[in-house]
Design goal:
The complex is a heterodimer.
Chain A (H helix, E strand, L loop, with lengths): L26 E5 L4 H10 L2 E5 L3 H14 L4 E4 L12 E6 L2 H11 L24 H9 E11 L4 H18 L3 H5 L1 H16 L3 H8 L2 E10 L7 E4 L19 H21 L7 E8 L2
Parallel strand pairs in A: 1-2, 1-4, 2-3, 4-5
Antiparallel strand pairs in A: 5-8, 6-7, 6-8
Helix pairs in contact in A: 3-5, 5-7, 7-8
Chain B lengths: L20 E7 L6 E8 L2 E8 L2 H17 L10 E3 L5 E5 L16 H17 L4 E2 L8 E3 L4 E3 L6 E2 L7 H14 L8 H15 L12 H11 L10 H4 L7 H12 L1
Antiparallel strand pairs in B: 1-2, 2-3, 3-5, 4-5, 6-9, 7-8
Helix pairs in contact in B: 2-4, 3-5
The chains are: A alpha/beta, B alpha+beta.
Chain lengths: ~290, ~260
């Protein structure tokens, strides 16, 4: 809040954070600091912001950007999420590109994902049991009533699933033994759980509930979560008007015509079935129970 | 730069905010650095404009001036609130009434257009200080049986009374643009209606007026001469169709309405 005003920065790509409604006394943490504009935007509206950045290169670039913007009320930590565990410090946690970040984490250490693996047939009764270490860290860091902001790209889902499956299979064969050969079921199980909780429409919300979050609201974001032009709350689909949006392109007339046709088809699908023809990204907001 | 974890920020105050449900309607339209949200707070629905830069702050503050000018004697003004955080926010109530598409055309809207012209003459003539809305279009009106509400005052500015009529001419040109599907060719019925609108607008206007002699050409001249007053953060030709229209087209429509 105390940062001097920089007249040149347009932080419109951080528009998703407008859903949160920051308070000038808020203390915020951004896990991953994937979008620099979001970090700067939050720093302008909050009392203080911390950035937990696993990549030193990303941390260096962000630091330079913050110097340019003359942001003073920040603190950057070059660490993994599980390397710092704070107790009820923050009013808000920001996690951009959530699923992508989970995948990066898994590459380093699979054990930080599931605290307790469960069998697929028990998944419906398992909401109290399935804990994700990362979400647990986030939860513990929030004050009671604190807010969580997650954004992730829907179109990345297949890539992410394949990436995760590849990791699991590599891990399985790298530590191959007779005993391991018998545990192929656990391999399939892990892949199945990942796809169920992170890739299904309702899975992530269930996972958040299981990890103690309440007031969970999901938003469809167009054209993507990096620079939203349209955000629709999924619980208000009946009241929202849907005009498909795309980034403005000045390319040839053929691509303009095809974009126009796509827009009309998408509008028709939404009007009749309340479904999105376009593949949106998503934002989820939630609160830690008071 | 990087601090050890134990030096991380400490909390100062307990948390007390709930998350309000919002829909993002537009973001950074014509590089205005502003987002428009529709917000659902319990049973109340309102719109919120939020700036994302200092330019956006300037535009939002200007928009509030427009609302202050327009609704100065109305209770509506108490519901329009400007919050000057680092990035400004302007809350605007949801007005009840008929809304219009941004691609509205003349055909089928004749009655509304005549009502809007009457409203303009009444509202703009009686105000002590003359001002320009700057982006008057049918889509910025919310109209019901008894009331006409006007929104989107981003391009508001004070001006001289001799420019009376600019906003209506701009609105008519936008309607022509969409009616003719950008070809600027209108049928006779539309041409006759335009002439009727012009007569309605020009009736009783002082000779010193600088718009109505050649309305479309003069309106374009006004726009280009005073473009800085419109607070447009992009090429003005991308924002206002009138500004990029060829002289021959404007002469054509001037002759339709004035002869």
């Amino acid at each position: 809040m105390s940062a001097p005003q920089n007249r040149y920065s347009n932080l419109s790509s951080a528009v998703g954070l407008g859903l949160i409604g920051f308070n000038e006394n808020d203390v915020v943490v951004d896990y991953g600091c994937m979008f620099y504009d979001s970090f700067v935007y939050a720093s302008r509206l909050c009392n203080k912001i911390a950035g937990i950045v696993p990549s030193s290169e990303r941390l260096r670039i962000l630091h330079e950007r913050l110097m340019e913007e003359d942001v003073k009320n920040y603190d950057l930590v070059n660490a993994n999420y599980n390397e710092h565990c704070l107790k009820e410090e923050y009013d808000c946690v920001i996690v951009n590109s959530f699923i992508e970040q989970i995948l990066i984490e898994l590459r380093c250490d699979k054990s930080i994902f599931y605290e307790k693996k469960i069998s697929p047939e028990k998944k419906d009764n398992s909401q109290g049991k399935t804990k994700v270490q990362f979400l647990k860290t986030v939860y513990n860091g929030l004050k009671p009533g604190g807010k969580l902001y997650l954004s992730y790209a829907n179109k990345m889902r297949v890539n992410i699933f394949l990436g995760f499956a590849k990791l699991e299979i590599e891990y399985y064969f790298a530590s191959f033994s007779l005993k391991n050969a018998l545990s192929i079921i656990s391999l399939l199980n892990a892949i199945y759980l990942f796809s169920y909780y992170l890739l299904s429409q309702k899975g992530l919300e269930k996972l958040l509930k299981a990890n103690g979050f309440v007031d969970i609201e999901k938003y469809a974001v167009f054209p993507d979560h990096k620079y939203p032009l349209k955000i629709i709350p999924m619980s208000k689909l009946d009241e929202c008007s849907f005009e498909p949006v795309q980034y403005i392109s000045r390319e040839g007339s053929l691509s303009r015509i095809s974009a126009g046709v796509k827009r009309r088809v998408d509008r028709l699908i939404f009007k009749n079935f309340k479904l999105f023809g376009l593949s949106p990204s998503f934002i989820i907001t939630a609160r830690k129970a008071s | 730069m990087a601090s050890p974890p134990h030096l991380l920020l400490q909390p100062e105050k307990p948390h007390d905010i709930t998350i309000m449900l919002c829909e993002l309607i537009t973001n950074n339209t014509h590089n205005n650095n502003i987002a428009l949200y529709k917000c659902y707070n319990a049973n109340k629905v309102f719109y919120r404009k939020t700036a994302f830069s200092q330019w956006g702050n300037k535009v939002i503050e200007n928009e509030k001036k427009g609302y202050d000018w327009f609704y100065k004697d109305s209770e509506t003004l108490t519901e329009i609130r400007l919050k000057k955080k680092y990035f400004y926010e302007l809350d605007i109530p949801e007005f009840r009434g008929r809304r219009f598409s941004s691609e509205s055309i003349i055909s089928g809207n004749e009655e509304t257009i005549e009502r809007v012209i009457d409203f303009y003459k009444d509202q703009w003539s009686t105000n002590d200080v003359f001002a320009i809305h700057g982006d008057l279009a049918l889509c910025n009106f919310v109209i019901d049986k008894n009331n006409i509400k006007l929104v989107d005052w981003e391009h508001f500015h004070y001006s001289g009374k001799e420019y009376f009529g600019y906003d209506i001419i701009n609105m008519l040109f936008i309607l022509i643009y969409h009616e003719s599907k950008r070809t600027f060719s209108l049928n006779k019925r539309n041409r006759d209606f335009l002439k009727k609108c012009y007569i309605q607008l020009a009736e009783g206007v002082a000779n010193s007026n600088k718009i109505l002699e050649k309305p479309f050409q003069n309106a374009k001249d006004y726009l280009l001469t005073f473009k800085d007053k419109f607070l447009v953060n992009t090429n003005i030709y991308d924002k206002f169709v009138l500004s990029g229209s060829p002289l021959s087209v404007l002469e054509h429509f001037d002759s339709i309405v004035t002869k």
